[in-house]
Amino acid sequence: MGLKIAFYGLAACDGCRYQVVNMGEELFKALEKLGLELVYEPLLGLTAEPNEIDIAFVEGSLASEEEVKKLREIRKKSRILVALGACAVHGGVQAMARLGEILNKYEKPGKVKLVGTPLAEYVKVDYWIRGCPANPRELLRLLEKIATDRLEALWERRFEQVERYALKVEDDLLLLDGEKCIACGRCVEACRRVGVSVFSLVNRGIDSIVSTPYGETFEEAGCIHCGFCVAVCPVGALSAKLSVGELRQALEEAGKKVYVEPEALASLAAYFAVSPGKIVGALKAMGHRVVLWSPLSMVNADGKRIIPLSMAERKLLEEELPSLAHEATDVPEPPSDGIIITSCLARKEDREYVFTAKELSDLFKTYGIDLELQEEAEVDLKLLPRKRYRHAVGLEDLRRMSKEEGEPIVFYSCPFKCLLNGGQPFPRRSLDEELEARRKAVSELL
Known about the structure:
Radius of gyration: 30 Å
Structural class: alpha/beta
CATH class of the largest domain: Alpha Beta
Largest sheet: 5 strands, parallel
CATH architecture of the largest domain: 3-Layer(aba) Sandwich
């Protein structure tokens, strides 16, 4: 005989139970597949009170002494009790009756507080299904876990114990691997701070996951590929798609120019704890000329006063501040006569032979290149900014500065400018220490 389940209603509108009942044939097929037996649900004409229940779903809050007594009887004969919906979980709309003057109307001295009282104030609740109304799909997922003995106790650590639906979202540059995600929400906050909000936490409780809207690809969701989410992910669930093999092939042919951004060179030096000259020496040992290159050296302002450093900034500007988009220059194009090593993931959209500092660091590690043994070397050429600029970090900065007179404005989408994003090696030390080391290295290079 399968597990017996029952549905009860207290003070509520019965909307949560109707959500379940309205599943119709789908509900009964799911119960049959899991080997479950529905023994009590008055909405379906099942009115014979069972003596024992494996799983009791209780909708509604408490509004009378009689309901408290009924709830305790249900708890006594049930192995598992589930609070179904917002009213059962935290009192719902009727809990507002416990406020102010209305509170005094219903409660008398010495009496228990009843109107809008959640179930957990009177009995042990094993699991909760939130929502108004509750989502019947979550109910079925909970039943599946109970029926297959895959439920974890509420006090167990989710990092080691909880199994979640593993969502995979990707495009040409980014990958979200739900198998690794711990739903910490850092990427959600990072994306919000940039101004895009591609990510959100969906589902509830132990089924919470990070997702794009409806599981769309990054491109469909409006991602600008700034890579900030990759930089803040602590477990590698978000990663940039790397082309280390292509970078190796590009570097195997000696005599090429390698254009390296100051921020990329600084992050590599900080990551490997060597001087920038060691990185330059390693590239020269491969037979290449090394050019220190900034996108700002390629700017053609042509009377315009906002400079989006990459396609990430250009997309963000056009989407969020279209009134200023006409004042922006084109995105500075990388040189076309060599290999680009950039700090910016979005720059990989510009053309071929653009690689990130992360890809170069992985190449050094993969092929056992010991940077400490390399000779110190100077770059062959510096292509750096030729004039002064103001710097706007984020949309709010850009809004404010666009109203002021002054030099052209360089627009950064990432909160740490180009010092930390998905195109760079992940910091080995605290963020403050890493950023300080990178700022110092960039200052010395410039």
